[in-house]
Amino acid sequence: MSPMTVDASIYSAPKVDCHCHVLNPEGFAYATDVAYRPAGQETGSADYFLQVLDAYGVKHALLVGPNSGYGTDNRCMLSAIARSNGRFKGIAVVPNDAPRSYLQELKAQGIVGAAFNFSLHGLDHYRTAAPLLARLGELGMFVQIQVEGSQLSSLSPLLLDAGAKILIDHCGRPDLARGVKGDGFAALLALANSQRATVKLSGFAKFSAQDFPFADTAAFTGALLQAFGPEHCVWASDWPFLKASRRLDYGPLMQLLVQSVPDAEDRHKILWSTPLRLFGFGAA
């Protein structure tokens, strides 16, 4: 593998990391009914993560409640948000029957949406979630979707009917064998027409068949940028890389964005102005 050209300017540029987790089992014990309990290098407290952000010049982060370890227990993330002096906001994991009052309480604590992990739980797990999607839409919150393969092709009508803002994890985790015209990825590109959907340029290791810099994902990143534009694309690290099948590091992932988006103005939107507009960082 030839060395990547390093652009040091990205470290001083203002940035938001739009998908990351805090896992602190010593401070917040894991739920008893979770299928996976992260340990060792997969964990990371909010205090440590703030040092990571400072080291790379990242001003804000959108925390995502992990199904691993915590399930629908959002206390670790809410504590991190409360102590972050405005640097963190979050996406919560909530039960399908979560009432409007609970969602309002979460919103008041810095939660901007709820996560639906179809790639983990499957489609049937969320078969009763249409009212929840509607409540999120009424409250102006995001429906964050993690899918893989062709799953999104059957979900698009439900998402569009709900009226909520849509946030797609990890480039939609497409099936590389089917290419950019595969059913699931085509459904993702079509969501751009709604002007309510945003996609995270992240998680390449989750669907690439290659090692860093994941060259087999370039066509998908290019298609997403063309369809959504930098006004509806954001960047994320996925720190601390739960269940990673290979070594990942924060700095090289940031440099990968420079390679994928060479235009500095577009990068500024993806890293800064778009997430500030979407998630309200810095708002009183």
Provide an overview of this structure.
With 284 residues, this protein is an alpha/beta fold. The protein has one domain: TIM Barrel. Helix content is 38%, strand content 14%. The chain is built from 12 helices and 8 strands. Strands 1-2-3-4-5-6-7-8 form an 8-stranded parallel beta sheet. The chain starts with 8 loop residues before the first helix and ends in a 5-residue tail after the last helix. The relative contact order is 0.15. The model has no long low-confidence stretch (mean pLDDT 95).
Q: What summary fits the major beta sheet?
A: 8 strands, parallel
Say how many strands there are: 8
Q: Between the first and last Cα atoms, what is the distance in angstroms?
A: 46 Å
Kindly estimate the percentage of residues that lie in beta strands according to DSSP.
5-15%
Number of structural units classed as domains: 1
Write down the CATH topology: TIM Barrel
Fraction of helical residues: 25-40%
CATH architectural name:
Alpha-Beta Barrel
CATH superfamily: Metal-dependent hydrolases
Strand order of the largest sheet: 1-2-3-4-5-6-7-8
Report the average pLDDT across residues: 95
Global shape: globular
